[in-house]
Amino acid sequence: MKLKELAEQLGLSQTTVSRALNGYPEVNEATRERVNKAALKFGYSANANARRLAMGRVGAIGIVVPIHSSERFGPHTSEFLSGLAERLSRDEIDFLITPLINNDEISAYKRLISSKRVDAMIVSHPSLVDERVAMLAEAQFPFVLHGRTNIDTPHAWLDIDNKGAFYQATSHLLDLGHKHIAMIDGLKGFTFSEHREEGYRDALTERGISIDPNFIVHDCFSDEIGFRETQRFLSLKPHPTAILAGSMMTALGVSRAIRAKGYQLGKEVSIIAHDDVFPYLNASNMVPAMTTTRSSIRSAGTRIAEMLVRLLDGEPPETIHEVWPVELILRQSSGPPVIPAK
Amino acid sequence: MKLKELAEQLGLSQTTVSRALNGYPEVNEATRERVNKAALKFGYSANANARRLAMGRVGAIGIVVPIHSSERFGPHTSEFLSGLAERLSRDEIDFLITPLINNDEISAYKRLISSKRVDAMIVSHPSLVDERVAMLAEAQFPFVLHGRTNIDTPHAWLDIDNKGAFYQATSHLLDLGHKHIAMIDGLKGFTFSEHREEGYRDALTERGISIDPNFIVHDCFSDEIGFRETQRFLSLKPHPTAILAGSMMTALGVSRAIRAKGYQLGKEVSIIAHDDVFPYLNASNMVPAMTTTRSSIRSAGTRIAEMLVRLLDGEPPETIHEVWPVELILRQSSGPPVIPAK
DNA sequence: CTGTTAGCGCATTCAT
DNA sequence: ATGAATGCGCTAACAG
């Protein structure tokens, strides 16, 4: 069923039917009523492509997801997308996921723009100097960045205080008396990863503790990495008495390795994990309950969707940015170091 | 830059340029070369909406994701989407995710069809009698079902042998000497959940073991549910000496509860989990390594994308369906029951 | 091999 | 308050 047919059925012009359906004020209420009823009855719904072609606006936002590295389409991504979806569905905005196999991200973004398939985009996982952001900002294409990057051109972004999170966590461990603290975080090059390491380093340096490169790991967020690297840590002399884990997945592996060694969490070895708040993996329910730096990635998604809508409503990008604080939540996996019984 | 402008630049007609770009055979190779080079130079890329309007084909497939239940947009979904993406990106097919807040799924599907935004759809999480499937099959709209349902109208689908998986797992535990076996699986009503329970029941019945409704749980897949329900199990007399977990998330919670009670996995209480194969959560790396029924949900996604492409190429839906076997992989979390030391 | 012409289905001027 | 006419940018018959 198309507009023309619907109009014929009703004995009205396409124009009037179109106006009635799109809520234009100059339509007689009775007519509108009649039109709406008929549309419902015939299951009419405008051809989105024709509509977009005519209006020049799409009603969809784009997101480019590299799919070969599990790092980028794992549980974090799905939680984030859920958050986005929650807000966007209210305005009936779809999102278009463009999978990316090779590494030519820039051209994927460019194609998405020039083919006019989306009104705006969301960019995730920025590096310190991110060429995607530079390009989009330069092109003045509306987008919101999840994370931060050092690009001068004004753009909208939302980030959490990753540096503060690891600074807080490290400082807390130092307060408890730990001298040897390790960290396992995400891949090097990403801003969040660099920021976290900065926080960690600052806290140590502030107390005059030298930094041991053997205690710093950057890799994917997974149970396996957590396990393997913790085993390595525990074979060192002296070994760390506390470990920061960049994700809950990592933390699971770290925990296993600690237990496998016969140590107790929060005793011989403490652990603080960054918790992005997964509904299916709850830090407070673990045994022992896990001390975490917490910030909901899902909420971030929702908020970013909100920012996107503001951007599309014409708000200038330079006024749209936020840094979210991260809470340190003390539970039982962190405590003063206990000397292992020989 | 639009087609017209590009054509003017080249001193050619729009038609020729269009044909050159779209790989039509009747174009002079030299001309094609020239056109392609110019397109690249000017960053031209066709307006997707105009293109779709003219062609009547979209180059995108749709997927409706209910977002309020974490059950439906969790790690399983993201792995599945990754798999889809892997195959679809080869044909430059995007996917459109339509978030769904209220429960009116049917009308969301109908709108997606009549607005011509997608060429085909993927339907997940069917119930035994699924009205979405009935509607789509009736409307002869191309779609592939992930899972199975009892609908007569021919349609394409891919499912794993859920019944066989739980049958195998249960039988194995019975072979080991277990008499009291519990299961924690997904929400009731979904086909996969029902099939699994069937497999479980069949195995027990076959050995003349009566079924205790207290030993059967249907709920979301999460660490928390696994933990809570296992605590409940272990407070029963007699309590189960083996537990089937419907997901790895559930299994994490089950494991914790077993350990919290002072039992060892594979000794006092055995566990077999269904493993959808998450890259960040590896059953063989757990301590003890986890016995699983394994079937990669990501591969299923890739295969379903493949089926979708065949469907769009005109293959009739009734010839497109597969049941994948599920492997039982024995590791250390399952063993003969050990009587707890008092 | 290339160009001319006519839609694809809708939103939107400009009339009335 | 309603209708007729125009164009969004592209593809595909139809001609040559």
UniProtKB/TrEMBL annotation, chains A, B:
Lineage: Bacteria, Pseudomonadati, Pseudomonadota, Alphaproteobacteria, Hyphomicrobiales
Family annotation (Gene3D superfamilies): 3.40.50.2300, lambda repressor-like DNA-binding domains
Organism: Phyllobacterium trifolii
PANTHER family referenced in this protein's UniProt entry, alphabetically: HTH-TYPE TRANSCRIPTIONAL REGULATOR GALS, LACI-RELATED TRANSCRIPTIONAL REPRESSOR
Signal peptide: none
Domain HTH lacI-type: 1-55
Cross-referenced SMART domains: HTH_LACI
Name the record gives this protein: LacI family transcriptional regulator
Any one GO MF annotation of this record: transcription cis-regulatory region binding
UniProt keyword terms in alphabetical order: DNA-binding, Transcription, Transcription regulation
Top-level taxonomic group: Bacteria
